[in-house]
UniProtKB/TrEMBL annotation:
GO MF terms, alphabetically ordered: ATP binding
Annotated keywords: ATP-binding, Nucleotide-binding, Transport
CDD domains linked: ABC_DR_subfamily_A
Similarity remark: Belongs to the ABC transporter superfamily.
PANTHER family per record: ABC TRANSPORTER, ATP-BINDING PROTEIN
Protein's name according to its UniProt entry: ABC transporter ATP-binding protein
Taxonomy, superkingdom: Bacteria
Length: 321
């Protein structure tokens, strides 16, 4: 059963006559890792601030854990952990002390705070650095400490704004694995804002593509590909010994094939609305033509993202839902 945990209904933020967030409706379910993906200025941070009750909507509503963020921001704050892109720590204090300080701000008693801080430092791989001053932590270590920091109050939802910014590839991999692990082991819902396509693709169950304050599409990567590339969802690349017109005609007759493009004397690209790989292979073999290579092209988030951003308005109009 899916239960909504973040609910945006026609959420809008207008600065002067410009929409930062434009009538945004979106539901994120409990236990999901949702990626809010968009370029600079798309409205991701403004949306997050409204979810946290730190910015007042011009219109529409936002609920987190069933609570209206605008009218009850403190209740939302208790249940939501927010990691901004650059969380400040007290550099003269150790990682452990910083966590205890956050715990005290959240009204957690000292004994519980110490237990949780140790447990979390272990979880994020910082136990060895627990007594090191946070000012001496690397960027990756600070982000891991940031995760421990948002988790100390046992939130139901964590919101991470560009969590991997400035971290080296190995650190990114570790941080993303950690987020995925926390999501699975603790059942925490994660909202991750990013413009790193590949990273989002690795961890998110669902992604929303956000441009100029509007959500252009949401879904898992396969669903997004289907919405965007519905005419030619499947592309099969073929290399064969003898490509002639009769063979192309045969391939064109296969149900599900939209068109066949001859790339060179031995190469074809076949566009279809269903997975026609097996039928194409059979047809070539039946025609007694040597099949050298056949491969289905998979659309990744990269293609999806660029296709949206190359012509956002055009793509939005052509999107089939
Ligand atoms: N306080 C403000 N006053 C006026 N305009 C603002 C304010 N905050 C944000 N904006 C505008 O709202 C739009 C959305 O900004 P926002 O910071 O939400 O985007 P973003 O997707 O988070 O971008 P980034 O990835 O760069 O953080 C931008 O055009 C920005 O200039």
């Amino acid at each position: 059963m899916t239960a909504p945990i973040i609910e945006l209904d026609q959420l809008t933020k207008k600065y002067d006559d410009q929409y930062a967030v434009d009538h945004l409706s979106l539901t994120i379910n409990k236990g999901e890792i949702f990626g809010l993906l968009g370029p600079n200025g798309a409205g991701k941070s403004t949306t997050i601030l409204m979810m946290l009750g730190l910015s007042e909507p011009s219109a529409g509503s936002v609920k987190v854990c069933g609570i209206n963020s605008t009218s009850q921001p403190l209740d939302v704050k208790q249940r939501v952990g927010y990691l901004p892109d650059d969380l400040g720590f007290y550099d003269h204090m150790t990682g452990f002390e910083n966590l205890l300080y956050t715990a005290s701000l959240n009204g957690i008693d000292r004994k519980t705070a110490e237990e949780r801080a140790f447990h979390l430092l272990e979880k994020v791989g910082l136990l060895d650095a627990a007594n090191k001053k946070s000012g001496k932590y690397s960027r990756g270590m600070r982000q891991r400490l940031g995760l421990a920091d948002v988790l100390i109050k046992k939130p139901e939802v964590i919101i991470l704004d560009e969590p991997t910014l400035g971290i080296d590839p190995e650190g990114v991999r570790e941080l993303l694995q950690l987020i995925k692990h926390l999501n699975k082991s603790e059942g925490i819902t994660v909202l991750l804002s990013s413009h790193h396509l590949h990273q989002v693709q690795q961890v998110c169950d669902r992604v929303g593509i956000f441009v100029k304050g509007k959500l252009l599409a949401d879904g898992n990567v396969e669903e997004l590909a289907r919405k965007l590339f519905f005419e030619d969802l499947f592309v099969i690349d073929v290399k064969a010994d003898l490509i002639n017109q009769p063979l192309i005609d045969h391939i064109n007759e296969i149900s599900g094939v939209n068109r066949v493009e001859q790339i060179s004397a031995m190469e074809l690209a076949i566009y279809g609305e269903s997975d026609i790989t097996a039928e194409v292979a059979k047809t070539i073999i039946h025609a007694n033509v040597g099949l050298r290579y056949i491969q289905k092209r998979i659309y990744g988030l990269d293609e999806i993202y660029h296709r949206y951003f190359e012509g956002a308005d055009h793509s939005a109009k052509n999107t089939r839902t």
